[in-house]
Queue: 2 jobs
Job 1
Amino acid sequence: MKTIDNLNFNGIKAIIRVDFNVPLNDKFEITDATRINAAIPTIKKILGDGGCVILMSHLGRPKTGPEDKYSLKHLVPALSEKLSLQVKFASDCIGDVPQKMASELKSGEVLLLENLRFYKEETKGDENFSKQLASLADVYVNDAFGTAHRAHASTTIIANFFPEKKYFGYVMAGELDSLNKVLKDTKRPFTAVLGGAKVSGKIEIIKNLLDKVDNLIIGGGMMFTFIKAMGGTVGNSMVEEELIETAKQAILDAEKRGVKLLIPVDTIIADKFDNEANRKSCDANLIPDGWMGLDIGEKTRLNFAEVIKNSKTILWNGPMGVFEMPNFAEGTRFIAESVAAATDKGAYSLIGGGDSVAAINQYNLADRVSYVSTGGGAMLEFIEGKELPGVTAIES
Ligand code: AMP
């Protein structure tokens, strides 16, 4: 892998595509700095070598041009503090302002450019816009895994202007390394745990994983489409009728490939979608009318945990139930703890997708799993087997 460790940046000006798309409150304070923290080692490595750094990112979804609430200037104080230096800010990402500031940038200094998405050219992957960004630096580094599935100017097209001088930063390298450990250099048995609301969002993942896994565990709202496909009655639980045939096909495909498909045998049902609803345990295929399954049941938790415990590679995406409601979070917590316990015993575990990451953090288990992906959509596309343009741009 072509990472920044392949180069000594002494005297070199590097432009880094980072993912600083962080949430801000009304006072423009950062409420979750995870993405900024993730990029710090890459920046420090380049500064430590004696190079200087130009940072570019998007923030939010500005519609037609500059909007103060989406200005990256709001990030300067926090970033300066984290780097223990005064970060300079260019009020535009292309044109005379960044040109002058970039040309005057000295070794050890950091320049942050204004929001790339103030220009529609960014998401369009405009060649000329990319060229102007490229003209600011000697070397291109991509460290924004979260946007690696988009062929935008700053994530992909810009790399054309650095044919020999393009590198992955540590965030990118870490994410790719982890995905490769799970999907390519897989230690067996390999178990994928899929949950979350809908089959529709995960069907490509299921198809691709059926060729790779030994065990496929299905929980969350998507389990009811599978249970209905097997002839069960699911009451008012979430079901995607139009995907019942697809679920049937997945069940057949799993059988053909010798993949053990684990579908819940019991569930915690509720008489309304509410934490305070009446609730009880029930066979997953015999849910009465007027009731809906909002978590996996106790037998299911034990079945799933047994398989997870004996796995050497684990991929987990999506909660097992409506974990935002404490009364329906136990299944998700139990699975999170099982994944951590398997990791303690030497398994490699990758957790990805906003809600499973939130669950792992909520239960303070992030340190007990192998890798927590910040990649969201990019990670899911990789697991679907798709090529990520941002990755190909560096590798090609
Ligand atoms: P996703 O974004 O597809 O991973 O879905 C995550 C969402 O699925 C979370 O907000 C959960 O509350 C929801 N979810 C999980 N299990 C269920 C269920 N049994 N019924 C309804 N929603 C669920």
Job 2
Amino acid sequence: MAKVAINLSTGSIQQEEIIVGIDLGTTNSLVAYIHPEGRQPLAINDQGRGTIVPSVVHFPGGGDAPIVGTDAKQYLLTEPQNTIYSVKRLLGKSYHDLGQHAEELGYKVIDDNSEGLVKIRVGEKFYSPIELSAEILKELRLRAEHALKTPVNKAVITVPAYFNDSQRQATRDAGRLAGLEVLRIVNEPTAAALAYGIGLSPDEEKTVAVYDLGGGTFDVSILRIQQGIFEVLSTNGDTYLGGDDLDRAIYDHWASEYQLSTILFQNPSAQQELRLLAEQAKRQLSSQDTFEADFGGTTLPLSKAKFNELVQPLVARTITSCRQALADAKLTPQDLDAVLLVGGSTRVPLVYEAVSEFFQQPANNSLNPDEVVALGAAIQADILGGNRRDVLLLDVTPLTLGIETLGGLMDPIIPRNSKIPTKAGRQYTTSVDGQVNLKISVYQGERDLVKENRKLAEFDLRGIPAMPAGLPKVDVNFILNADGILKVEAIELRSNTRQAVEIKPQYGLTDDQVEQMLMDSLTHAREDVAARMVIEARTVAEQMLYQVERFVAKNGQHLTEEEISQTTAGVEQLKTALTTQDKDTILKAVDELEELTRPFAERVMNISISQAMAGKKIE
Ligand code: AMP
């Protein structure tokens, strides 16, 4: 039976509202839906271009009109600075979080030396990983709309089980920027289980392992499924291990065995050619026993036995992770009802054998490992769309609950559509030295700025011991019980000071009002995310100003007149930038002030280290 939906903004009636499932991957992304007739999940293959969309965004000539996917991928070598790949690794992360990995990327990640979220510079513009992920999602959305010939506004998006709140929120924001209402963020292993039909009946109880080896990342999760609830018991992996490393092992073998280092050193396009041949060899050896190719007159052979020998250490590392995950879940292989394989690299027979041997049962690889996560996301979308009456849908909270943070931003604690009862929390700190009170304002709604949401309550946590800003640790917990009553409690951990309130979030709200709040969040998605980005840029800038001014006041005697006057000019420029509402201008000024102060900041640090050392006495 076809469903009919009414578009609230236009009043028009739509036939069958489509909710798509999206696998937003590090290397590749896909979109899937439930075919209305067969009611089977299908990955969308628009115009015969295949189901896989490489997660690559290219800005031709460093301009601001990006292209996405296979067309973008070809610029990875020729225009690396304008071609962004692996952006999923940056989602919800600060430069600090990335560490050395920031330098390994072909494009420029801005080092603003702060805890703020990273930005990527392309040409004269700064992009957040959210904006770049949104470009990938937009491409998927367009493909779905084109293939299905209907508007697509709603989606379920998958994330790795180990993603934290900030990475999940970033994924949601990316969806919204791409014009999608993200009905739920689902763990990738949960989606894989659903695709294999596990967890679809309410009385089912199963424990499964999901082994996911993609192009650049590896993870394994142990899930327990009980009464329609998917609980992640443990997860393990290596975010820098994948099919690319298998290719690299072949590449290195050929390079040393056939003395190719001179030609490779002189010729970057030869490197690329050899890399492609290595991947081709790997793929062929998944179904055949030998491979041979010609590389500029040299014959490069590879037997399956040699390939297995080359990649054995990498496969062994993944098995070590599996052992750890199982131990963390306090289970043995016999406790597992199934082992599911996800990711293109699980097509390597040695991987299949090693995983099956370790878990003492044949791993399940009957579904296409590239598509399985997207297919599961489509099934989850179908469940949320109310099309599977047989599946238990627990009560959910219709609007997001959260608190106000710096700059009037909404920090979601319990996202909308969370099953209730539920409990979630986050840690906060003070922003001013010696602060003894913290105001907790509780809001409900989907907008990024609290002033657009509905205020539910406000209270002060008093009696925090006076400490420097950033030291107090305040846990804010939201406990939403099965009757929809929300209890918010705040605890300062060092002193154990606590305060709590109880609220009824749905009190006085009609269904129409809830609907209106959701509609508003969609209509205002672009301006909201833009406003949030400006606020985040301003916060980064204000922290930078505070640090630089404090630094100059403390270490002025070690600086030359010229350095002081240059810094003053940089500070002024940043203050002027702050008067605009343009995040790119602000971030550019932050970047420049950082570049300007870095050399002497390092010098002064060396001076103070050597003074400290000189002052040390050896007893
Ligand atoms: P994913 O990130 O899941 O799309 O995985 C892509 C990875 O799977 C890449 O490293 C591919 O080289 C690899 N891959 C795809 N097909 C095969 C195959 N037949 N044999 C081995 N690896 C493959």
